[in-house]
Amino acid sequence: MSLTLDVLTVLSVCAGAFFFLAGTVGLLRFPDALGRLHALTKADNLGLGLIVLGLLFQVEGPSAALKLISVWFLTLLAGATVTQLLARTARPGGMFE
Amino acid sequence: MAFDAGLAVLVLGMAVWTITARGTFAAVVGFVAYGLLLALVWVRLAAPDVALTEAALGSGITGGLLLGASARLRPTEAPATGETMGIGLRVAAAALCVLVAAGLAAIVVLLPEPAPTLAPPVAANMAALGLANPVTAVLMAYRAIDTLLETVVLLLALLGVWSLAPDRVWGGFPGPRHDADPHGLLTFIAQLLVPIGLIVGIHIFWVGSVAPGGEFQAATILAAMWILATMAGLVDDPPVNRRWLRILLVAGPAVFFAVGFAGWAMAGAFLAYPAPYAKLLILTIEIPVTLSIAATLALLVAGPPERAPP
Amino acid sequence: MADFLLAAAGFVLAMVALGLVRILRGPGDADRIMAAQLLGTGGIAALLLLGEAMSVPAAVDVALILALLAAFVSVTFAKGATRTEVDRV
Fold this sequence. Notes:
The complex is a heterotrimer. By secondary structure, chain A is mainly α. Chain A is built from three helices and no strands. Chain A has helices at residues 2-29, 33-56, 62-90. In chain B, strands 1-2 form a two-stranded antiparallel ribbon. By secondary structure, chain C is mainly α. Chain C has one domain. Chain C has three helices and no strands. In chain C, helix 1 (2-25) packs antiparallel against helix 2 and helix 2 runs antiparallel to helix 3 (59-82). Chain C is flat. The N and C termini of chain C lie far apart (60 Å). In chain C, 71% of the residues are buried. At the B-C interface, helix 1, helix 2, helix 3, helix 9 and helix 10 of B face helix 1, helix 2 and helix 3 of C.
């Protein structure tokens, strides 16, 4: 049983790390600020979600698992709303162009 | 090992970039990033209490403070960037930094093996206080005098900031009025995050007696949430001549002093806790201190009064 | 498992470092305001992995605070970039 959990953790964390890689590649390659923000937010949050999923298999007890999920949820919530704000500031015609 | 080396290189690189950044905004961004990375370092060193304080106070609130200062300095930024330091001054500054860093490194490296530590007596006596977190035990019992004086120092800093107000707005509203569209994005963000932040703050406060956490970190979260609400225009900072505000600010240190003097009567020394009431007394101190520190930090970031009192 | 999680944390940190290099170099401030977001997600991932690898359960609390404060700092950055020079008196 613990071997299955470990395998699941490794798989999820690897998938999460892959999405972090994808997000960073996007960050490095997209030509404009909005595209970079897009890659950063979407891919990195998905990567974080997969990593949290992987760690869920490792923790003991429902309260620790609930805390992990709430961290991910909070990051998702904060990320989705705050990046809208950043995008409005960074778009052409916003503050910096 | 490779992880540690990579983290150290990253943190140092961040520090170098922050120092050499052009423009105050860029430097503040670098400083905040540096602080958040430092929180990672503290977790790596198995010091989660320090990591909590670094993430909240060292980069969050201080970042807000620095950003406010950089916004106020914007008119002077162009001439300031134009100035260059002479080579002699640069060499002197570099030499001083190298000296301080070398001294610190020498102290750490030359510590006797095993390093002298008071951790065993702290751990042995914690149970009498009803605490399970040694950091809280040190902060609130063994070195409570330091915590008391910290709260006073914060108040003095706030007085210093308030004294920068010009005469015509003396005692007025701190900071500019933030107008935000009540149906807009910033308001939505604040309405979403502030309640969550309040819950997290209370959780961190409450868990501080058994796990990393405590009043300073909780106060910082509460202050950050208040500042977020003011930036969204949901609330406004009260004018600083309001009596209830001043009572709120002073309540924490006042209760701390009161318990301290009562300790003289009850247990024989300033800030001594009589044994069965230790946990209760610590809680009695922590609640007003958290509220006072939160108010002090929020007002520090808001800045000196800029609008005349009503 | 602990070694694997540590390696994963190191990988995520390397991604954060690469991202930081690109963001902080970006001419002008339009890119730099994203720095708090990058650290908000990447830093939290690295923190959670690190906490599990080192058996420091409080790392999740640090991650909670990091999430809140990264959002707060991002809003301050966005607001600070748009703060008007005229203050109402």
